Amino acid sequence: MADSTLPIGGAIDLTPQSEVYGTWLEQVHDWVVTADHKKIGLMYMAYALIFLLVGGVEAILLRIQLAVPHNNFLSPEVFNRIFTMHGTTMVFLMGMPLIIGFGNYLVPLMIGARDMAFPRLNAFSFWMTSLGGLFLYYSFIGGVGLQGAGSAPDVTWWAYAPLTERAFSRGHSTDYWALALIISGFGTIGAAVNIIATTLCMRCKGMTLFRMPLLVWLNLVVAGMILITISPLTAAQIMLVIDRYLGGHFFDSQAGGSPVVWNHFFWIFGHPEVYVLVLPAFAIANEIIPVFSRKAIFGYPAMVAASVGIGLISLSVWAHHMFTVGMNSASNAFFVLSTGMVGVPTGIKIFNWLATMWGGKIRFATPMLFCNAFLIQFLFAGLTGIMLSVAPWNWQLHNSYFVVAHFHYVLVGAIVFCFPGGFYYWYPKMTGRMLDERLGKWHFWLFVVGFHMTFDFMHVPGLLGMPRSIYTYEPGRGWDGWNMIVSIGGAVQAVATLIFVYNLVHSYFKGAEAGPDPWDAWTLEWTTTSPPPAYNFASEPVVSSRRPLWDLKHPEDPDSRYE
Amino acid sequence: MSTSTIPLAHGAADHDWVLPDRGTVAMLSLIVAETAIFGIFVVAYVYYIGKSISGPLPRQVLELPIFNTVCLLSSSLTIWMAERALKKGAMGSFSLWWALTVILGGIFLGGTAREWKKLIYHDGLTISTNLFGTTFYSLVGLHASHVIVGLTMLSIVLIFALTGKLKSEHSRQVEVLSLYWHFVDAVWVAVFTVVYIIGR
Questions:
Q1: Which of A250, A367, A387, A440 has the smallest CB count inside 10 Å?
Q2: Does A197 touch chain B (CB under 8 A)?
Q3: ipTM of the complex
């Protein structure tokens, strides 16, 4: 019954797409000059996927080097560059564009708006972000000029001072790193300002704050967090550039400056950043889990409160990265407790997701599979997080592979599961075609197996004392076999990712027609065509509950009756 | 496909649907981000007070920029008067108050330039001299760069006003711009307190 009435009459222009397209060159031109939030969102996603592949190749290089002891696949210098670039790429060039891309694409559609509040600022933000990425990768050529080609930054992605000072980090590679992050940071802040203004000022009639889909709420919280987390990073990078170019002494211990100040500034950015990356993953789970459980989300107000709570608490946990730096016991206690406290709102979320699924008519389609795996993995990641947040345990395991395993469990286990889930869910909306379900299952199961081989077993060499950031190790320390398993798992994940990319391309041409509402979902983006027209909705929608499309499909029993 | 069988609008939405102004929201968001940037620089300044290994020290070279401060802070008042005039449609009065704001901002910037000239040529304090120099020029320079951006935008509006392109229906945009200017003034209060009172 639902499909026969969708897209809603009068909501779209019926001109066939073939008449809209021009020549190839006109299309390229159209993408470059576009200020359409959907096209910009797609460009963000494409950009993120390209860098996912680049960062993934870097990860595979690292794992080949570490698979066996005394390996000479990469030299120590190259190893340092590759793991610096891997970290920086995955956080700033993959993670951030991916979350902003999804926010860009979905937020206006979900609140019934025709575009972002500031479409041209949106385009500016995207091109700044992409310039940042190009700038960073140009360092392979420009780091010390052409004769030193290949000299990318090698100061790690957290770039502790004083290693980054002029005296210790010669050439320009560190400058490329700092400037790239400043540039892409401006883009990110612009995008965050835009998302806040869009959410607060562009909602369609009846879309009160407490009727917004949770994805929109979480993007609002994330945008707020970006304002107060990316800015300190920008400030710290400006200080670093002042030190390096103008002879400043911010982090120069010989002139009274303090490297520990960099640690603080970096992690004031760095820890909330983890939540900036992971909340949009939650946001996707918030949309997928109810639709595939055929139930409204359980505890909507609690979910909103928990998201805002995570946002606020996450601002006061940064120094749990610094227990080994040597703080006084009062600070240690504070950061142990505040870190533990983040577990409370996160726990609320996990229970709400479970309660949403409880008693539901669950459809295990690919998007739901990814979200279910995310739930389990995020729980484990949270548990190792609690372990690491306890200062004495942290002293024992800091800078070991246990830490590497923990944060990859959080970031890969949440983001690289929820976002593919999101692609399987919204790809029909974005392109008008379904992603292939059989390839999707292959992608999912291979990725789950690869993920658990890599990151479950990575905890073990960490517990056995293997430090992070080492380029090789001696045989006979009990690390050898574990590292081999971890590396093989990495290869399995690579295969899964290639299947995903193949699926994205293949289904664009060969996928089944999706229609406007393939999942029988409830939010506004499914009321318009797939892909939506440039103006999204021909007439502004009016909503009266949290599930406007449910109300349309079930006029005899609308949600609005219960609100 | 049957069209328009289901009305797009349903339920009661008869009450007024008022949303906040996007320009104001965006400017406030930007101000939050800028506050965080300034916050980090202020924290660095405070943390490094008295940690310089060599001279010159703040109390040897810094003088209280009282006149400058009075000029900048009173520009917040004049811009408010200008806004009020614009809302009433009194364009002459608007241009006058707005020009006064630009002049006051210009005086402040000139004062900072004179102060820096004295510090560099007379006292030999540059950004690389010592930790005080690094933090002082960064923090005050960051603020001054915001003043420059603000003055540029104020001047553009002034040109529009003098050429008769600005009307009272633009008062919302002008209000957003003046929010930024108030922010620049408020930051100066913090910078002044930290640099010239606590740090001296």
A1: A387
A2: yes
A3: 0.92
